[in-house]
Structure prediction request, 287 residues.
Amino acid sequence: MTLDHHWFSETHSATGSAFSLKLQGKLHEAQSPWQQVAVYATEAFGNLMVIDGYIMLSTRDNFLYHEMMVHPALFTHPDPRRILIIGGGDCGTLREALRHPGVESVVQVDIDQEVTRASERYFPELCESNSDPRAQLRFDDGIAWVKNAKPGQYDVIIVDSTDPIGPAEGLFAEPFFRDCLRALADDGLLVQQSESPLFHLETILVPLHRTLRAAGFADTHSLHFPQCVYPSGWWTATLARKTGRVADFRAADAAAKPFATEYYNAEIHRAALATPEFMRRALESVG
Ligand code: SAM
Prediction:
């Protein structure tokens, strides 16, 4: 991370690239036991949350990520009622999940209260559903939470984590996914934020598919979408089903969704399922 008087830059040294936003100033900085959380006011992207120097979200474009982390998964599961979010402390994923009228409960388990406190203050629109009676906010380690879950307790698990380093490292590992599989009901489904298809294909995406299959998930598939504030501007959400195929989603229900979105619709869902040739080749070995 470099920060001069006017710009925040996140550099990606492996690819010799960087993304920068022009700043108006720093609004907030706090060091929790887990990480450093900062919020900046930018000139054109609204507020910007940064954890340990890595961009988490901006006011302007977080809708892309939050909608794509939630709606494809919830329109793929036949009847999603009990949702678990691991991470997601900014509460944007929680808000999207609660848009589904059939959802009965959403438990959000983020390790760090500081992220939610900063979001309540600087991204209040993302926290507007926090007092929904179906929502529970817990501050705990997601790995331990899933280990202690009852078998079949959840229909969908959404892993909205930081990059696989620090406290989030174990959220990309086989023991965690085995626990998720056990905590999911028979037709359960998991979705994991899975980084850039261009920058992290061999280092994160392909290993993630292998790990999910090794943990026992029957089918895995990465959906892609634009996200300009993340490295390469292109991101993925990887879905894993206990039974059935990820590509089979409830297209008619998605087309008739009873709530407004900014990005997601049934056509976007179908398009996001299409796999570019370089990804297809890299994933062939996974089966
Ligand atoms: N959209 C973001 C991205 O891809 O860069 C992720 C946003 S969300 C703020 C990530 C959250 O994961 C953080 O709030 C962090 O505290 C949480 N987190 C990291 N490790 C965790 C763990 N082991 N259990 C629960 N939450 C965790």
